Amino acid sequence: MKQYPSFSKGLNGCYIILMLMAFGCNSNNAGLQAQVDNLSHQTQKSYKPGLGEFMLGIQVHHAKLWFAGKNQNWKLATFELGEIQESVDDIKLYCTDRPEIKSLPMLYPALDSLTQAVKLKSLKQFQTAFIGLTKTCNSCHETTHHEFNVIKIPDTPPFSNQDFKAK
Ligand code: HEC
């Protein structure tokens, strides 16, 4: 009987410790939540390139690819093809809010044919595959109601400060 009060005192002590722990936990959670809110706010505000910006990049690589291939500069052509592929991957990652990207896979067979032509170092196959790629750009622009963005084989190199001939 004598032990009972001291046992309950011990229990009270336990409660206090538990409450302190719970309080500590809660304030920690609140701090973490504030950090999460702050981070997600920052992410929402951070700059993400839009589809049009990726397309501008692709436009440049499309033109450079043509002059690389025409000059049978297969190393540069491989590089430019890789850049187009990277832009396509980035579009898939960053432009999920654009329903048009459903049509992106139509580009894959055209890019595969070009990769094949560049691997074989065949100018003839390259030219055919490049026409195929350019047609696909326009097919997608038509499908996505951007038919006024007409892509063609370039007449002149896009930049005068780059040499497209193989070293
Ligand atoms: C998924 C379908 C699709 C494919 C494939 C595609 N485009 Fe586009 N393109 C679009 C859409 C949609 C826009 C409009 C983007 C916007 O709203 O800014 C666009 C816009 C453009 C623009 C205009 C950008 C500007 O601001 O002036 C260019 C240039 C362009 N594309 C080039 C290309 C080239 C070159 C290819 C092929 C290598 C290609 N596109 C393939 C859908 C596509």
Write the layout of secondary structure elements.
Elements: H1 3-45, H2 51-70, H3 74-94, H4 107-119, H5 123-143
Helix pairs in contact: 2-3, 2-5, 3-4, 4-5
The structure holds heme C.
Heme C is lined by residues 51-52, 55-56, 58-59, 62, 100-101, 103-104, 106-107, 133, 137, 140-141, 144, 146, 149, 151.
Model description:
The chain is mostly helical and 167 residues long. The chain has a domain of 93 residues: Oxygen-evolving enhancer protein 3 (PsbQ), four-helix up-down bundle (Four Helix Bundle (Hemerythrin (Met), subunit A), Up-down Bundle). It contains 5 helices and no strands. Helix 2 runs antiparallel to helix 5, helix 3 packs antiparallel against helix 4 and helix 4 packs antiparallel against helix 5. The mean pLDDT is 89. The site of heme C has 21 residues, from helix 2 and helix 5. One of its GO terms (molecular function) is electron transfer activity. Keywords: Signal. This is Cytochrome C. It comes from Mucilaginibacter mallensis.
